[in-house]
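User: Fold this; tokens only.

Assistant: Input:
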Amino acid sequence: MRGRLALAAAAAASWASQKAGRGKGSMIGGLIALKIDPTVMDQLGQRRRTVLVTGTNGKSTTTRMTTAALSTLGAVATQADGANMDAGIVAALNAHRRAPLAAIEVDELHLPHVTDSLNPSAVVLLNLSRDQLDRVGEINMIERKLRAGLAKHPATVVVANCDDVLVTSIAYDHPNVVWVAAGSGWAMDATSCPRSGEPIVWEGAHWRSTGADFQRPEPDWWLDGDDLVGPEGERFPLRLALPGRANRGNAAQAVAAAVALGADPEQAVAAAGTVREIAGRYRTVQVGEHDARLLLAKNPAGWQEALSMIEPTSAGLVIAVNGQVPDGEDLSWLWDVRFEHFEGVQVVAAGERATDLAVRLTYAGVEHTLVPDPVRAIASCPAGHVEVLANYTAFRDLNRDLEERAS
């Protein structure tokens, strides 16, 4: 009864928010439902087979791909907007109450208690690297918390990236693991073993700890050229609409999770390849004489991967950085990102913290101009294709400004 009352109040709050022009109202609905009945997430998760997706980078993209792959089995509950904390998860499950499947993006700090509530069939562990220190804290502490949380769910299938040292440590002792060689372009947070503190030694793709019985497991799924290779050696051509090597790894883990729940691998691979845009990311918009492709990055590992996607023949590159609470107010991470390789591209520093970025670009030897407003920064570039790379609130605000200009 209390749960039904909570969901009814959530629906009323969402309706009022929409009528007031304050957005879709899903978050306020979820918050109110949890306030009335803290067990409402547990109730909404019953009688569903759920996949939870977490990691520092790639959660939204992998969740969308997992949703597509699971859709070959039936209706899937998921977040449309990437709201990956309790209120957003409750809202997503409530919006799709009859769906027998769920693919839920979860903030890594929230994974232990969300796992307890939803008792998932599978958990996808993508990667773990330093994020906003003023919110998340020390990365090895997160690894220990996630390891302890999953230990309470031995029946859950853990789909883990064996190329990421910290993710491997989380899943290493779990009795039910599917290992995926999804790649790791960032190793700066795993130079030492999370279990012994001794150095990690890399030998090609293989890695091992020098001070513990801890090394890269043999993968069940891996990428080989344009193919995804499965546990029996079967090959599936992996053709994605999204760019970048990281997204190929995301797709591999999404497919592995769907197959663990019973999906046909060939159908799952084809479905994952249909994902084209995630909440405005990767889309190209016309801004005057410019066609601008919008990319999002939120931490050093994500920035490094996004920078690798920049077209070197672009007419311009706009880098927009804010320092609001959702971004992390401490921007010292800018000094961990390699900006040194942009010869021949006109670079513009933008965003509320454009001056901080400009200092970093100066030390990197990158010639640039300073135009704080991202829309004006795009306009300042030569006509043609412009790459726009922004952190969280800069990306959000730019999308809002572009929508207002188009309306």
